[in-house]
Design a protein that fits this description.
Largest sheet: 8 strands, mixed
Order of helices and strands: EEHHEEEHHHHEHEEHHHEEEEEHHEH
Number of strands: 14
Radius of gyration: 23 Å
Oligomer: single chain
Distance between the termini: 63 Å
Mean pLDDT: 88
Structural class: alpha+beta
Strand content: 15-25%
Shape: globular
């Protein structure tokens, strides 16, 4: 156990609060059910703190399509960007917290992404709301900050949840009163390696005094490497621009700089604008086409000399919400020698070295593929 936490009371007396274990795992789960703030969304991203909405406790996870529930996840939340957040709770006294819980969580995640129907999640949310005496529609609109459901905002949000789930854009959280160092290392490793999924630990310590109880959450797993890779940094973001982008890219050599300048010169006249990234350690630029209130982006160029293809984001943008259309885009991009994109990347954001476009013919094939995509999205009415 750690040292005490001290509370200065209104009469200026000092009350010591001693760290104590939770009476049961169920007591810890109930705290999360009633107080999602204990998941420390403000520590996950201090620039844009995560707000979390409980979908359900004890969510069943099937092991096959339309199959029976094989596992039971402790909690499912979603954040304001529609990112499903899977939470598994263990007390530090539970011997399974060191390694067994990792395999357990990965089972949940892999099968949830593959087999969770959106109708089941919506139904679970409605049951949770009814249990707490809340109207599901009002609860969702309150979470979204809306007074009325203008333009089907709630339905659109659930579609965003579905898109994130299908793309594997999820968050996995291991929560305990104390997280052993062995589990912390595994969490950090997984968070650095998994993309777009995020893997975190939340250590929720409890301090008890005569009349008060205090919970102190701490996020684990946000290493410098994972922050740079995913942009989920707890530090203030850097606003890049054309000058700073190319100054940083020069570190990769003259070839990526020349290729990026050719891409920028070609794409500027045929899109609405160029968005310069806000990564703390890596800069980027993203060509954006603003169309009927939607932002369409096909790729990003990064200061580490990589080109990132945005299949994941195209999933929610007609006509590329059709896998057939994304497959056709992939086929056209694969005319660039060395791209070698595969079907399993149609819901992801694969990266390729910019140097694959150094040959003018390769760059021309890439440009024609993107121009075809831009034409296709503009035909949708």
């Amino acid at each position: 156990m750690a040292g005490n936490v001290y509370l200065i009371q209104s009469d200026k007396s000092l009350q010591a609060m001693t760290e104590q274990p939770y009476q049961s795992e169920d007591a810890l789960q109930e705290l999360l059910e009633n107080y999602p703030e204990l998941l420390a969304g403000d520590q996950m991203n201090t620039s844009v703190p995560r707000r979390l909405l409980l979908i359900s406790r004890e969510v069943g996870v099937p092991g096959e399509l339309d199959g029976y529930d094989r596992w039971s996840l402790d909690h499912l939340f979603i954040d304001q960007d529609g990112i499903p957040t899977l939470v598994e709770v263990k007390r530090s006294t539970d011997t399974r917290i060191r390694r067994e819980v990792v395999g357990q969580m990965l089972d949940y995640a892999a099968n949830a992404v593959a087999y969770w129907p959106m109708e089941k999640l919506r139904a679970s949310f409605e049951i949770t709301c009814n249990h707490h005496g809340k109207d599901p529609q009002e609860a969702m609109l309150g979470f979204l900050g809306l007074a009325v459901d203008e333009g089907g905002a709630a339905d659109a949000f659930w579609m965003k949840v579905k898109t994130n789930l299908q793309a594997g854009h999820i968050r996995l959280i291991f929560l305990a009163d104390r997280i052993p160092i062995e589990l912390q290392r595994i969490i950090e490793f997984l968070n650095e390696q998994m993309d777009p999924a995020e893997v975190l630990g939340v250590e929720l310590r409890q301090f008890v005094g005569k009349e008060f109880r205090t919970m102190v959450p701490r996020i684990l797993g946000l290493t410098a490497a994972s922050n740079a890779r995913k942009g989920t940094t707890s530090e203030p973001r850097t606003q890049w621009d054309e000058k700073s982008f190319f100054e940083e890219l020069e570190k990769m050599g003259a070839e990526p700089v020349a290729i990026s300048r050719r891409i920028l010169q070609w794409i500027k006249p045929i899109v609405s604008r160029i968005w310069w990234g806000q990564g703390k350690d890596m800069g980027s630029f993203v060509p954006i086409l603003d169309l009927s209130g939607k932002k369409i982006h096909f790729f990003a160029v990064w200061t580490d000399g990589k080109l990132e293809i945005y299949f994941q984001y195209l999933q929610g943008k007609p006509p590329f919400d059709s896998e057939q259309k994304r497959s056709e885009l992939m086929r056209r991009l694969n005319e660039v020698e060395g791209f070698n994109l595969t079907d399993d990347q149609l819901t992801r954001r694969p990266t390729r070295p910019l140097t694959l476009l150094k040959d003018p013919r390769a760059l021309e094939r890439f440009q024609k593929a993107i121009e075809w995509g831009l034409y296709e999205v503009q035909q949708v009415r």
